[in-house]
Every structure is written in structure tokens, then in C-alpha cells.
Amino acid sequence: MDMKLQRIGVVVLALALVTSVAAPVSAAPSAGSLRDEIDAVVADGAPSSTLEFRDGSRVERLASGVVELGRSRPAPVDGRFRIGSVTKTFTSTVALQLVGEGRISLDDSVERWLPGTVPNGGNITLRQLLNHTSGLYNYTDDTLVTPEQVVRDRYKRWTPRQLVTLATSRDPLFPPGTAWSYSNTNYVLIGLVIERVTGRSLGAEIDRRIVGPLGLWDTEVPGNSVWITGPHAHGYVQVDGAPVDITAMNVSSSYAVGDIISTTRDLNTFYAALLGGRLLKPAQLAAMKTTAFDSGYGLGLSKVALPCGAEIWGHTGGIPGYLTFSFHQPETGRYFSLSATTYAVVPDVALFNALTAAFCPAGTPAGSSDRLPAIV
């Protein structure tokens, strides 16, 4: 996660903290309004953006901007992109499936499955990893922090154990279970637990449990491959006032945390299956939607209350070059996924306006600096 995304993740968490209210029934947005909103994302600084919005049987797929800076080829509607921390919902889903199968418990300690890996691991539970109440230091606060670091280390290979070592070399933020703080370290450890329990790689488990059964053919866990294959727009970081194409990148530093590549269509299909009860048993889905403290964060799933009172579930994602919003309202049949490529400016308010337009009545006041979901 680069410096701009970390800043947003810290500063604009306020929306996720809004107390839940009953979601009003609102008219579906018009195609014109969503077109205006996605164009605004590009006008506010994104080289490109693509979205899919489902409202019952109605499906809109839109794209704006260009594939590459300095060229005129339009961004593809079906483009693939790095989804960043939306990956956490996939990782959590696999972990909760294992809970439903009786192979692990949310109350198991980290020490039970990863002995000697984490200091005080006997007092940290898997639930506390999944809902970010472990207190463990966030290793990405020390990696890929600046654009210069991103470019310098773009092809560096990391192992999950190296990432954990980075985190555990720092003091914990608080005793386990006493507070909430978003830490990517938590999901590295969950990925290692999944591999320990199943005897297979996390990517293999995501493929056989989610990608294959749902037919998410444009979704992959790239491992050490640096490429985004198929149609896609390019992402950038700004170094010395100029754009550097960061599309090709080894994202092993985001193992289990943010390494998946997907499309807006596949993300909507995934969340429709998840929130519709097709991937988890009722008890595990309820646990996923049980939020910790006042964070609005459950187990790999965020609850957001929009200005109109609509309550939606999903996740944001930020990784160098790409931003993702994927939020949903299964009771109304509305599913919204949007990807934007980045360069010098994060179009955060325009992104939130697009989200508001999808779920709120026309004319609802939307974006401001203190009403945005965290891009994490």
C-alpha cells in the first residue's frame, strides 16, 4: 500500500464507524447518473475507472478513461485489475468455511496452529486476527510506504514468514482483544493457518472453494507472477513529478492481504454468493457480519452507512496503481464494484459519490473529507 493510500486509510475511516440504521428503499440510479459519476472519477484524477452495478436483473457495465496515460485507447469494461484488500474477504471466507467444517475454531489461538511464530500467540485468537483486534503491528507501515520504495522493490519476492518477522520485530499496539486497529499482519497469519490446516496453498484453496464453484474465470491469485494478463488498464505511481507505470509488480508482499486480480463482474458474483448464503453456513456468515468495537469491521467484511441511511457490506482495496470499492445490499439485490487506476491524485470524494449514487436516492448529499470509507 503506497503512502497516499495509507493516509486515506488513517484519515477517512469515519464512515465505517457510523452506527447502523435501517436502510430505506430508494429508487435505482439511472444509467446516466452512474455514467456521470464514473466520468467524474476520471476527471478528478484517475487515468481510468470501470464499474458494474446490478439491481435485480438489471446490469450496468461502464468504463471511463484510457488504458494508458498518453494514449487514446479506451479502458475496457471487462478489464482485470488488482483488487487490493478486497482479497481479505476471500481469505476470510476460506477460513470461515474451515470453521464450518469443524477443522478450526475462531477461538483457537495462533499458537495452536503456528507454534512459536508470534510472541504472545497463545493469547491471540483467530477471531482477533480476522477482525483486527489482535494488536499486532501492521507490517505494511514499513514496506512500500513511498512511491520510490514501490518502484525500487516492485519485483522483490517476499515470503509470508518474512512479513510476519517484520511485524513481530515491532512492539504490539495493545493487548489482544482490547482495541481495534487495522493490520495486514493479521491476514498473513490467517493465510498461514489455512495452509497449515489444509496442506495446500492459500491460492489453491481460494481456487477450489470459491473461484471454481462460482465460475470466476477472470479471478486469480498471481503468486510471484508480475503480470496482469487479459484486458486491463495500467496503474501508476508518481515519482519526481512524473508517472511510473507500476502495472507489472510482484505482489507477494500482499499475500492473503491484497494480492488477487479480478474484475467488477467477478467481484459482484462473489459477494452475491457470499452475502446470499451460498458460501458460508448461517452461523459463519453471522460471525462475519459481527463487527468489533465501533470499527464497522467484521471478519473480512465492512459495514458502511451511507448519507441516506442505506447500509451496505463489502470492502475497499488499495494497492499501488489500483483502488477498488466493492459494496452490496443483498436485501435489495444491488451489487456495486468499481475499480480506478491511480496516478498523482486519489479521487476519493468522486469514488464515494459513485457509491452513494448506486444506493441512495438522487440528490443525496455525498462526498466530503470526513464521510469516506477507508481505502485499505
TrEMBL record:
Residues 1-27 form the signal peptide. It holds the Pfam family Beta-lactamase. Keywords: Hydrolase, Signal. GO terms for molecular function: hydrolase activity. Residues 53-341 form the Beta-lactamase-related domain. The keyword Signal applies. InterPro entries: AmpC-like, Beta-lactam-related, Beta-lactam/transpept-like. PANTHER family: D-ALANYL-D-ALANINE CARBOXYPEPTIDASE, D-ALANYL-D-ALANINE-CARBOXYPEPTIDASE/ENDOPEPTIDASE AMPH. This is Serine hydrolase. It comes from Actinorhabdospora filicis.
